[in-house]
Design goal:
The complex is a heterodimer. Chain A is mainly β. Chain A is built from no helices and 11 strands. In chain A, a hairpin with a 4-residue loop joins strand 7 and strand 8. By secondary structure, chain B is mainly beta. Chain B is built from no helices and 12 strands. Classes of the chains: A mainly beta, B mainly beta. The interface between A and B is medium-sized, with 24 and 30 residues.
Chain lengths: 112, 114
């Protein structure tokens, strides 16, 4: 039973345009959400996070939006760059636990 | 620069062998985790540990065990390797509070069981 779902396994975007990666969750106890980026043969690296008390968090070119009523979050990358090409995982945790539940990942390709 | 180090990048083992995957962190983190990554399945939690000599089962513990004798080291053990354990294995650590930075991951060990 997949509690965190990324329904798009891949996404292809032209350089300079916006990339939007989506993530849905089912567990209403989740209160903290994170996005990780993973290059081949490397471990995932933290990108950006959001607490359930917020609906938006921004860090440079990266913005995460949270819609609690829809149990949906999205990561926006503007403008997209070729170096953003990687697999992106969303992850969630419930209150009073440090255990992260990861989604299945979306492979982003940014082409010139 | 803080680090989580996994001792091997690539391993090839035979079916039935006992396999040890080692992970060391230098951040004095309390919590350590083992995940495996498979295409279409994302990262799935195998085991985790909140303290020395403590261990908790994750979502897919079958066929695995762990050892945490020292705070900085968390070992994953495949008691009798099978081909369905061919995967990328990722170790991670974090402080007791999730804070804003989540886990720090190692670079992963790509294990092939033949």
């Amino acid at each position: 039973d997949q509690q965190v779902k990324q329904n798009s396994p891949s996404l292809s975007v032209q350089e300079g345009r916006i990339s939007i990666l989506n993530c849905d969750y089912t567990n209403s106890m989740f209160d903290y959400f994170l996005w990780y980026k993973k290059y081949p043969a490397e471990g995932p690296t933290f990108l950006i996070s959001i607490s359930s008390i917020k609906d938006k968090n921004e860090d440079g070119r990266f913005t995460v939006f949270l819609n609690k009523s829809a149990k949906h979050l999205s990561l926006h990358i503007v403008p997209s760059q070729p170096g953003d090409s990687a697999v992106y995982f969303c992850a969630a945790s419930a209150k009073n636990t440090d255990k992260l539940i990861f989604g299945t990942g979306t492979r982003l390709q940014v082409f010139p | 620069d803080v680090k989580v180090t996994q001792s091997s990048r690539y391993l090839v083992k035979r079916t039935g062998e006992k396999v040890f995957l080692e992970c060391v962190q230098d951040m004095d983190h309390e919590n350590m985790f083992w995940y495996r990554q498979d295409p279409g399945l994302g990262l799935r939690l195998i085991y985790f540990s909140y303290d020395v000599k403590m261990k908790e089962k994750g979502d897919i513990p079958e066929g695995y065990s762990v050892s945490r004798e020292k705070k900085e080291r968390f070992s994953l053990i495949l008691e009798s390797a099978s081909t369905n354990q061919t995967s990328m294995y990722l170790c991670a650590s974090t402080q007791s509070s999730l804070a804003n930075y989540g886990y720090t991951f190692g670079s992963g060990t790509r294990l092939t069981v033949v």
